Amino acid sequence: MSLLTSIALLFLFPCAPQTISVSVSSTCAKAGEVRLAVYANAKDFAAKREIASVVRASRNGTVELDVSLPAAGTYVLAAFHDLNGNGELDRNMLGIPTEPYGFTKEPVSKWEAPGFEDVASRFEGGKARTELRLKLWREY
Asked: What is the CATH topology of the domain spanning 15-139?
């Protein structure tokens, strides 16, 4: 591959890190922590292997945070409002989440766990902004 072709590819497919500003709101306006994770592909999403994560204290159910992505692309940003601070998304005996949770793209159904493509969003180059609304399972 020629030097000119390589340079052209760098401009067409930038690999520079990207910062996403995320506004997170929760239907439970309690204290606690908002825990956000970023997944780069379906395999990592299924295995709960995030490429980035951020934990911030929640005040009145809202949090503003920045997340760094390795490059422009398709990612899942998933978050939950950890009301009791135990670091886990609590569930009842049926496996239904009992704390507010959400994604950048709302799942189609609350009756099954979403797949990567169901909740993934595309983030282009440059500084982007997105919102996540964390809701209890019954609110979906």
From this structure: Immunoglobulin-like (2.60.40)
